[in-house]
Design a protein that fits this description.
4 domains, Alpha-D-Glucose-1,6-Bisphosphate, Chain A, domain 3, five-stranded mixed sheet, 448 residues, seven-stranded mixed sheet
């Protein structure tokens, strides 16, 4: 069955515009209880959100749907997405729901769902939920009287996650580090600053005053140039930029140079291998990870396994093959020994620990490999036609691949979260790959 609502990472769209409406959230809450109640008469579900103004609307709609099916709700308010994964397990809940559109603009919103184990749902379970959402069964299958669920606010949720995150590096002291932190006016605005300060770091905080409309606005991991300038201005040791729901991190070194997810993975993977805790000497990445990362890992005795784009696919491969480390170039990093989902704060903590343990600056750590030049072009599309059904596009891709040979890569795909097509070309010559990427995109736009 083709999924109607769920994309690569939950349901996402413009708030109050189909499918991201209160009505959809209400039906989703009902269906989630039915599918994930784990045999309980009174299942328990955690709901968290980021700082978007529409979060109030979706929080109420989800709560209504869950309670109407006999589920109880624990409301934890603005919290990072990975915190909800942790709290779902900490409260022994049957599922966790996050109201967030991650890095998208403030007028968007979305809903992600975690299982009782703290993992995002697999495609099959999402399809089962979709089948039920607007079914006759859901219209008539309600509880009444004392069986109706209840909702309550949890006051100590923030403290639970703060202690959990600090424990991921054994409360390693970060004293002596001067850090610029960009909270993106998002879910971690009142959490990550406390974690870094409690571990002894000097923290200069940017964009921690959300107003419901400024999440991700010219700040955070989508705009590393902001934190780069601040690191230079304050002569800081390192900069950390989060996205709206704090599952994605981009860092900058003391020179203000961006350090992306591929480099973060290289640094952490090498540290884990040397400590003999990297399972099967394997890192799980995606098709977007730079060829330079693959070559570096190979020289270090580490294998790179690639999946489709999307951290759920990375995690799925990790669980299936018993690997414990992986991530995406975009900054979604999963350290499975500590988290069940990408966690920007915990990733940053591990990088800071490595810096302190080795007595090295981030620029030194990140210089372990050179990325091949890469060009990525994104364009909106009206429809998602099968690329193989467009001969001119197939030919343009083939021409680029033949020109690059084994010294480059071409990847063309539709976004899993937005109505966009993405063209990525990688190779040794910036001019050549830019020419190929622009030619492929031009050809696509003529067809779609």
């Amino acid at each position: 069955m083709q999924r109607r609502f769920f994309g690569t990472d939950g349901i996402r769209g413009v708030a109050n515009q189909y499918p991201m409406t209160a009505e959809t959230a209400l039906q989703l809450g009902k269906a989630v209880v039915h599918v994930l109640r784990n045999g309980k008469q009174r299942p328990k579900l955690v709901i968290g959100k980021d700082t978007r103004i529409s979060g109030y609307m979706f929080e109420s709609a989800l709560t209504s749907g869950i309670c109407s099916m006999g589920g109880d709700v624990l409301l934890v308010g603005p919290m990072p997405t990975p915190a909800i994964a942790h709290l779902t397990k900490s409260f022994a809940a049957d599922a966790g729901l996050v109201i967030s559109a991650s890095h998208n603009p403030a007028d968007h919103n979305g809903i992600k769902i975690f299982s009782k184990e703290g993992f995002k749902l697999d495609d099959e379970t999402e399809v089962r939920i979709e089948e039920l959402m607007f079914s006759e069964h859901m219209k008539n299958n309600h509880v009444m009287g004392e069986a109706i669920g209840r909702a309550k606010r949890i006051d100590d949720a923030k403290g639970r996650y703060i202690e959990f995150a600090k424990a991921s590096i054994d409360n390693f002291a970060l004293k002596g580090l001067k850090i610029v932190l960009d909270c993106a006016n998002g879910a971690a605005y009142d959490i990550t600053p406390h974690i870094l300060a409690e571990l002894g770091a000097e923290v200069i905080i940017l964009h921690n005053e959300p107003d419901g409309l400024n999440i991700n606005k010219e700040c955070g991991s989508l705009h590393p140039e902001v934190i780069s300038a601040s690191v230079l201005r304050h002569q800081a040791d390192v900069g950390i930029a989060l996205d709206g729901d704090a599952d994605r991190v981009i860092m900058v070194d003391e020179h203000g140079k961006e350090v992306d997810g591929d480099h973060l993975m290289a640094i952490i993977a090498l540290d884990m291998k040397e400590k003999e805790v990297l399972k099967q000497d394997t890192v799980v990445g995606t098709v977007m990870s730079n060829k330079g990362l693959e070559l570096f890992l190979e020289k270090s005795g580490i294998r790179l396994v690639r999946t489709k784009v999307g951290d759920p696919y990375v995690i799925e491969e990790m669980i299936k093959k018993d690997y414990n480390f992986g991530g995406e170039q975009s900054g979604h990093i999963i350290i499975l020994d500590h988290t069940t989902t990408p966690d920007a704060t915990i990733t940053a903590l591990h990088l800071l620990r490595i810096m302190k343990e080795r007595g090295k600056r981030l620029s030194e750590l990140a210089s372990i490999y050179e990325a091949l030049p890469q060009v990525l072009i994104n364009e909106p599309v009206r429809e998602r036609r099968d690329l193989d059904s467009m001969p001119t596009v197939v030919e343009a891709i083939k021409d680029a691949e033949e020109s690059l040979g084994n010294k480059g890569r071409v990847l063309v795909r539709y976004s899993g979260t937005e109505n966009k097509i993405r063209v990525m070309v990688e190779g040794q010559s910036k001019e050549e790959i830019k020419r190929h990427a622009e030619n492929i995109m031009k050809t696509i736009k003529m067809e779609i």
